[in-house]
Specification:
- With 107 residues, this protein is an all-alpha fold.
- It has a single domain (3-106), classed as Cytochrome Bc1 Complex, Chain D, domain 2.
- 65% of the residues lie in helices and 0% in strands.
- The protein has helices spanning 3-40, 49-54, 62-65, 69-78, 92-103.
- Helix 1 packs across helix 5 and helix 4 (69-78) packs across helix 5 (92-103).
- The longest helix is centred in the N-terminal third of the chain and has 38 residues, at 3-40.
- It is elongated and about 65 Å long.
- The termini are far apart.
- The chain binds heme C.
- Heme C is lined by residues 35-36, 38-40, 50, 54, 56-57, 64, 67, 72, 75-76, 80-83, 86, 98-99, 102.
């Protein structure tokens, strides 16, 4: 393989990899915005009318802060309070990525 071709192969691989990582992040964000935001709010603060009606706790609530990532994934899979179970509707990968996005509001 000539040096030039090898360089191109490496370049294409890098671009593909960067694209895949970018997609994983934005898909969690896109999912959160389309499926979760109406009840948990744009920043997890549960300030929407639906959140108030369903008594969703904001992410700043000590009880929510105490949730591990695994416990959150479980709450979303199996449902909690008025939140419906998402298993069967979203894949585990989708639930994990939506929860990771939700957890970015913890900071
Ligand atoms: C119909 C409104 C509604 C939608 C849509 C919704 N939730 Fe919830 N969620 C709730 C309610 C109500 C609870 C339980 C009350 C509480 O503790 O906040 C809850 C609890 C949680 C919890 C447990 C920790 C916490 O905040 O109490 C997590 C994590 C969570 N939801 C994430 C999600 C994710 C991720 C999505 C999108 C896939 C989602 N929710 C969609 C209403 C909703």
């Amino acid at each position: 393989m000539s040096k030039k071709i090898r360089f191109h192969v490496a370049l294409v691989a890098t671009i593909l990899l960067a694209g895949a990582v970018g997609f994983a992040q934005s898909s969690g964000e896109a999912l959160y915005k389309s499926k979760c935001q109406m009840c948990h709010g744009a920043k997890g603060l549960a300030e929407t009318p639906a959140a108030k009606a369903m008594k969703v706790k904001p992410i700043t609530d000590p009880e929510v802060k105490g949730f591990t990532e695994a416990k959150m994934v479980e709450a979303v899979r199996n449902g909690m309070g008025k939140m419906q179970p998402y298993k069967g509707k979203l894949t585990d990968v989708q639930i994990n990525s939506a929860v990771s996005y939700f957890r970015t509001f913890l900071k």
